[in-house]
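User: I'm writing a tutorial on reading structure tokens. Could you give me a worked example: one chain, its sequence, then its tokens, then a sentence or two explaining what the tokens reveal?
Assistant: Sure. Here is the example chain.
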Amino acid sequence: HYLNSFLVAVVLVYFFATGCKTSHPRSQRLLAIGFGLCTLVIGRGWVSSVAPDVCAGIMMIWLAWNLALHFLFNHTPNRFLIGLVFVCGVMVKLSVVLYLPLIIAIWLPLNKSRFIQIMLLAACFIPWLIQNFMLSGYWVYPYFTDGITQPDWQVTAAQALLERQTITAWARAPGASVAFTMSLPFLKWFPNWVLGQNMFNLLVLFVL
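And here are its predicted structure tokens:
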């Protein structure tokens, strides 16, 4: 929770400091203050949280801010820094990969320099993939294995399937029976899932 608290504090300081800079246009300063207040309201429960969702939430706010600067104020974002945040986010919480369309929107149009940077960022995944493989026999546990490299220590397919179903079931209905949740059709579990979300999560769903 110390890291989560640190991330929330850094983002808050950045937004409010940006909002106080008289060198920026008034509209940009007001937008920064708005983002700061949004983070303050949303981040109240994040400070003491140990969940990796905090990293994903902070990343979403950071990406939204850069998109706003890019499209509203024609500001050139630090694409490599944004990409690095994305890579780190995926390593902490795999579902961060759903933010990839926003990353692509910031990186377009693609040129030689940006392509090289993308390759460098992709290389950052290599140690993470190797660690996954050494611990479980899966390149991305419990979701992906190539079916060719099957070491003696590889987690069984049945256990990997159970892990996937547990993750999915918890996301749909935390605390409910895995077998029961997985048996529910979309129109059964989705409305209850929506009712259990806060406004920030619904906003993320809308953007994606």
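What the tokens reveal: Residues 53-72 form the longest helix (20 residues). The two ends are 27 Å apart (CA to CA).
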